[in-house]
Amino acid sequence: MKHFLPLFFLLLCLNGNAQGNQQWGSYFSYTNVVDLAQSGSRLFAASQNAMFSQNNISGELKTITSVDGLKTETISAIYYSATYNKTLVGSSNGLLVIINANNSIVSKNAIVQETTVVATKKKINHIYEYNGIAYLSTDFGIVEFNLATLEFGDTFYLGPNGAEVAVRQATIYNGYIYAATYEGFGIRRALLANPNLNDFNQWQPQFGGTYWTGILTYGTGLFAIDNDGTIHRVQGDNLVTFGRLPSAATDLRESSGFMIATCATKTIVYNSQFLQQLQINAIPGELEDITYTCATIVGQTFYIGTAERGVFSVPMNFSAPFVNITPDGPLRDNVFSIKKSRNFLWAVFGGYNTFYTPDNKRYGVSKLTNEGWKNIPYDDLAVFGPFESISDISINPNNEKEVYLNSGHSGLLKLIDNVPTTLYNNVTPNNTKLQTVQDYTGTIPYTSVRINGGTFDRNNNLWMTNAHVEKPLKVLSPGGGWTEYSLVDVLPNLKTTSYGKMLIDRNGTKWLPTVAEGLVGFNEALNNKFIVVNAESGLESTYVKCVEIDNSNRLWIGTTSGLRTLYADRFMTENTLEATNIVFLEDGVPVELMNEQSIIDIKTDGSNNKWIGTAGAGAFLVSPDGQSTLFHFTKDNSPLPSNNINDIEIDNSTGEVYFATDKGLVSYKGTSTEAEDDLSNVYVYPNPVRPGFEGDVKISGLVNRATVKITDIEGNLVYETTSEGGTILWDTRAFGKYKVASGVYMIFISSEDASLTKVKKVMVVR
């Protein structure tokens, strides 16, 4: 297999800031805020997988994502060092990321690679700076990090006999370093000047008997907060009750001369006289169940982070109302499924597990428009009753304002202009023929209408699967009528069978992926003909996750154990089908494409290349025949925030490829576009090609199989190719050998039958 990475991608991997923004786009959610930090005039906020900042004076917002080089594993803590002008970002797996003043990013993975600590106990909970050392409170102890050298120092294990103890927060007070632990080991302290702090015997229990969520040096006092939300002031060997929160604290900090204590429903600010300055219970106009996570102060502005709505700001004197300053984005980062129409990109967040058991999550949906994100909250969807586990989106190809949400538990919901108009399930009085699961044997009444893979055919009928029933194939006609088809004679275990997303090929054949029965083909126009492709038919695994049809009507079948293909046209004339693997030569040795990979999704671009999304291995782009791998994007070598690809969609008009992952939504600005019907929209970019440009010239708006010839002004041929789709690329070289000289170059385009022609020009300036 050829592993080809062009120059721009290699540069992207080396410097995300320099090249990433040119080739990638990010669409992260900033609503679930895990921590805040501040400089003199700027707020820093971290959601689980991205960050943003706001200038307190100008109001300017900036985002920092994986496209900018921020590679984390669920952000858990952030801190800004005014002395060193660096922002530190801690993660759930122990990764420490340093963002420098020039926006360069450095990652330190010593904690990640520490083999003596189990992976689940490496989370960085808090970062505290003292005399150039950042003390990282983790789930196993305290780690020193030198802010000048950017190197790790000692690690302190505080438990009995050096046991790992979760430390929520650390501080230094009167020459002692204090640690608030969360596993019943209380508050522990040791002399900071002690050269043997890595000896657990030097850490003495100060106050025990409970779980502690925070400890803070504020002014001349030392304050700690326990798991019940009680704020204590430490006076010698005694604890004096200072204040109380209604529940466990989520944050305790000093900011701009104030002490701020926050719990899920309240935040309290104390001044330097240890008097309450202000208290916030509810944000006017917001939901009552909003959850506060942290709060801070920049200048005269108070900021509060939430788990659902991002960050709110308000003047300290309340001279103006609360304002939500959160950047635009979808509702969540764990995007389960996406769907692209001409003008919109839809994203849903609920769904099912590996075995299609619904997760019963109650999430809203998000829609990307030219004006930004339109987020529809769950309550706006549940107007007809609960609508959970939204797993897929079906868009009417003749009216993109008509959308159907597929639920793995609650049926089918129709939206017109973002507003629910009809709920289809087993009880709605509209003869839907949708059914609840038929394998339930419990005594408590249970209804679960599991709909997936809604797909429109050329007659605008909406086909879908209804899992765990004997007639799983359902059809909603444009007029509102319903039809159903039984698979009793095809599959043996219908009452326990689940289905992936359906596909309809150009012959009208429906292809249904199943969990354990392989791939089912069905065509009602052929007397309800069925064919099952399973292990006896060449499938490596009968757990089929996805199926795609390419521009040659060739099926690409993704399973939990690899890839198979077959030509869909054979269904029309044959009674059995054989799926085959793709084998290529690597260093003279035959190798199977995608062998043993768990394939989640496959999409075909305008050039008939295949984008393949996997569970754990990132995304691949392979050539039309699968003999060459053009790209292999992973979290390590690209802005992908995760190697777990949940879904892929392609904007065929621009070539942009969207990747939905469990850590966020990003896009790669591809170049392969869908073929046009004529040559009226051909364009060339960039034009002119200026000195220093190292990329490819893009010629788009082509018909399929168009012949493209490029000559110099004297008619000498320098390049020739045939398009597969609507776009071709020219590297400004003469047949790939040497760069062409400065000058005007003619581009002659003709359709395959020569009935359509076009002539364009491009200027090259060296």
From TrEMBL:
Residue ranges annotated for the PorZ N-terminal beta-propeller domain, each copy included: 43-204
Sorted keywords for this record are: Signal
For this UniProt entry, which residues form the secretion signal?
1-18
- Reply yes or no: does the keyword Signal apply: yes
Please report the name of this protein according to its UniProt entry: PorZ N-terminal beta-propeller domain-containing protein
Which species is listed as the source?
A: Flavobacterium rivuli WB 3.3-2 = DSM 21788
